[in-house]
Amino acid sequence: MGFAGLLNVTVDSLSLAYQNLSVQLIVYLIVFTIVLVVIIILNRPVNIIRDFSRTDVNLNRLNQPGCFPNGWIGVCESQYLKDNEIKRFDFCGHRIILLRSSSSSSSSGSSLGKPYALDAFCPHLGADFSVGGKIVKKCETDCIRCPFHGWVFRANDGLCLEVPYAKDKKPPNGVKVKVWKCLEMNGFIYVWHHSEGEDPTWTPNIIDHITTKKWKYFGRTEHLVNCLLQEIPENGPDFAHLNEVHAPSFMWGGKIKENNNILIDSISHRWESTWQKGASNDSHKAILSLKSMTFLFGFKLAELEFDRLEQIGPAIVNLFFCFNLFGIRLEGCYVQSVISLAINKQKIIHHLYMEPNWMSSIVAQFLLRAEAIMLERDIQIWSNKIYLNNPKLVKEEKQIAMFRRWYSQFFSSSKEPQYKFEDLW
Ligand code: FES
Ligand SMILES: [Fe+2]
Questions:
Q1: In angstroms, what is the span from residue 269 Cα to ligand 2's centroid?
Q2: What was the ipTM of the complex prediction?
Q3: Residues with CB under 6 A from ligand 1
Q4: Where are the beta strands (DSSP E) in 139-178?
Q5: For residue 241, which ligand has an atom nearest its CA?
Q6: CA distance 214 to 144
Q7: Of 136, 167, 211, 285, whose CA is between 20 and 30 Å from 186?
Q8: Is the distance from CB of 152 to CB of 125 less than 8 angstroms?
Q9: Gap from CA of 149 to ligand 1 centroid (Å)
Q10: 351 CA from centroid of ligand 1 (Å)
Q11: Strand stretches in 59-206, DSSP E
């Protein structure tokens, strides 16, 4: 082979190597892009929003309690009220505003400013503060300035401090806008509702791992549903529904299955649960245990036992879990909050927090979707059922009767629904 031939072979080999390298480079680039996209998706908090509320709600709900329960209601998620922001909310038959001071004035050390809750309407001529109102400072205190005529009200007690066009800017004596007690914890701003205006007798628990950020926020689900608030936590003691509504695997989706199907029946969940009211010094709480077993053709595949499930007052549930998956510990909790938009229209919010590790990002995506699927099955029942004051229960369901007795503490005595049950125990 002459020099020219040798040169040709070398050029051919180089060009082949170059082509191989290009193909490899393209493959690497594709794989890298896919991995990058997956990482980005896994690191973005999930946000599932579904509206199951109906416009044709005219069911016979005449027996329903005609009032809202008393307690702390998670009116707003902390992440949706920024510093210097004013937002309007409907809850428990009232229209209120939440406003947040700038974080520089927060004494709590929180990265966000202090929240305040006030009636939405100005006592002067009824303007809605959330439509153009401003957060201002007077004598170092947070105030709201009405967009209509500029009256200024102190945020912490609602007192009118200034009427811009009155002599010496002096307001009429004692003019106030109603202030609602509120507190912020666990990713929510809770507002105290009491039909008779009584003060809080309890507060929700702070979840330390959320406050200290040991657990990371992985996302939320939001569902709108037509039912009474009470019917949602009543699911807790209703063990019998678990093995009907939630027996088919979550893989089959959120629609309640109407027909038997061998494929659907082949993989299923079985549930065990208990419910008991809290101790006398924690009477606003109830504690549940919940165990789920997954079966494939009758053989147990997996078992998941939730650590602790707490119902706190009429509208808050915290569900703690800790389990091992392939030797990796997964710990966290769901925080559930129900906001009564009207007597029979509720907004259900779930937040998921978990201890962060490489697997929790993947598992969180699954947990939030599985939870939404199971919840949507309940919602189909809730949105179409009626509320029965005196349901016909069997002895084995005495937990439902116990729950109703427990829950009746959240209604003011003058309006307390009268539950009558046979003596079941
Ligand atoms: S209505 Fe608010 S200042 Fe007039
Ligand atoms: Fe359920």
A1: 13
A2: 0.96
A3: 122, 124-127, 146, 148-149, 151
A4: 141-145, 152-154, 160-162
A5: 2
A6: 35
A7: 136
A8: no
A9: 5
A10: 38
A11: 71-77, 86-91, 94-100, 115-119, 134-138, 141-145, 152-154, 160-162, 179-180, 182-185, 188-193
Expressed in angstroms and rounded, the spacing between residue 144 Cα and the centre of ligand 1 is: 11
Q: What is the pLDDT of residues 283-325, one digit of tens each?
A: 999 999 998 888 888 888 878 888 789 999 999 999 999 888 8
Least confident window among 10-19, 361-370, 394-403, 416-425: 416-425
Q: Which 8-state DSSP code applies to residue 214?
A: S
Ligand 1 binding pocket mutation candidate from 128, 130, 146 (most atoms within 8 A of CB): 146
C-alpha Rg value of the chain to the nearest Å: 28
Tokens found for residue 352: 């998921």
Query: What order of strands is seen across the sheet that includes strand 115-119?
Result: 86-91, 94-100, 115-119, 179-180
For the chain, which domains are there?
46-56+200-415 (3.90.380.10), 78-186 (2.102.10.10)
